[in-house]
Amino acid sequence: MECFQLKTKRIELKTKSFELKTKNPQSEMPFAKLAGKWSIDSPRFTRLLKLIILSIMQNGLSLVHRIKEPTLASSGAPPLMLLVHGLGGDEKSLYFLANKLDGRFFFVSVRAPYALEGGGYAWFRPRFAPDGSAKPPDEAEASRRLLLGFVDEAVEAYRVDAGRVYLFGFSQGTMMSLGAALTAPEKIAGVVAASGRLLPELLPIMAAPDRLEGLPIFVSHGVRDEILPIRYAREIRDRLSLFPVELSYREYPMGHEIRQECIADISDWLGALLDDRKGNQPEGVLIQ
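Now predict its structure.
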């Protein structure tokens, strides 16, 4: 008999059947009939077991998410890449990046907590001032805390390297990723900030400069972005240049999107960090 321990839940594998046991006896789920069709050594059985384990983990973590396991080996526990979507997206929005970036990562693509009436999800639902500017409500701060809490949950649940946790944010997801990293830099090994902005509300609660020293941040933005104009990226660049972070900055001839040339640069930058090479690149370069 083989046993796997996942927090408070236990899976027992017997010769031709297995059952899921939890602390609540009423929630026990027998799988004997289903499992009895296959040998426990069969690949099909293994895939079924993985699905069940992932389902258990999903139920135990605070954010709905999708995962992709590493395709390349690491020395020790794998690094974690958390994909953080923008306004109106969900856990599927950035999942394609799991097939584009370094295969050593354990990818977790998360869904924001607030459902939108028109579909999709948000980390916060903007409120607009009389002058038309968008003001993030208290939901933004709640989501920042939630994201940091989820990092701890994911590290424990998926047994990834707590010292190599990376965030890849897009649009509103960039606001959340920068918020998490700049207030709790000890938890984050690096940030990709794509097509986003730095929330002014974050500035008073940023970590002290000595805690931010050496934090790798890659900022990418499209010069033709009509959703969040390029000035927001330049504000991030100018603000972060005042701190001892390792800043890489790129502008691209694109709109509010992530194009392949942008992904290629980010992938190279992340690979250098994983290889413990210098990841920062020249700033202010427009890729033609």
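The CA atoms of residues 86 and 234 lie 19 Å apart.
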